User: What shape does this take?
Amino acid sequence: MALDLDAIIAEIADGMAKVEHRGRVADYIPELAKVDPAYFGMAVATADGRMLCGGHATTPFSIQSISKVFALTLALGKVGDQLWNRVGREPSGNAFNSIVQLEHEQGIPRNPFINAGAIVVADVNLGGHQPRVAIGELLRFVRYLSGDDGIAINEAVAASETMTGFRNMALANYMRAFGNIHHAPELVLGSYFHQCAIEMDCRQLALAGRYLMLDGRHPGGGRVVSPRRARRINALMLTCGHYDASGDFAFRVGIPGKSGVGGGILAIVPGRASIAVWSPGLNASGNSQLGTRALEELAQRTGWSVFSPPPD
Ligand code: GLN
Assistant: This one.
């Protein structure tokens, strides 16, 4: 029986609008603390070219750590597998901004999706240029992926994090001491904070993720990455995309996903769908509480999972 995706999404969005306990909005970046936790949005781009939306799917939000997926894709394009000499590919089992593992592991972050790993990726993407050049490149890339030139950076969010990002400063300086950051830490962080401050809505984000559902192809023609690279990025999203809650996300939802403290999640069903959800309230691991719940419900109702044969 054909899935009535429209109805499923509308029902999930309706259900989420009524939930009372919505988690806590991130407040360590003051600008993000201002966002109303009542928002919930969802968008699904399907492999056969449809776009289905529910709730606040066209309200822009700060993509934060979801940007790490696009930054990683760019860095792999620049330095290929050499990236893995500077950053690992294992789940960390620690919070997104943890510093403890770095000392034991000589300044090599566990994976590109924890903050330390993403700061190394930002260092690679800087490539001797000024932050605005690297940021311009990332922004152009995201616009190309989603086919939408309206995507922009929220400067107030970037400034807010620059004022308060002491932990990220510590991570960058600490890795610099091990020789794993090659540029001045303030330049790397300037670039990193701006990439996190990119704003997109669910619709744009689901469109931007399509190359990961299409084995690396751009739906408009041509290739973004090789099939192998797309699969590897999906593998990293599944194992590391939700920090120390990645196992729980795989258990509950069963598809690759990357979260951000703005409350967004990009989730990929290979060959089927690129999904974006957004609800600003976070759980204790810094992942969207209702976003995770909505994806769990969507996966259950569609049968989408990377752990079972595709449903008919
Ligand atoms: N900009 C945020 C930070 O570095 C991103 C964290 C996140 O989204 N998990 O703290």
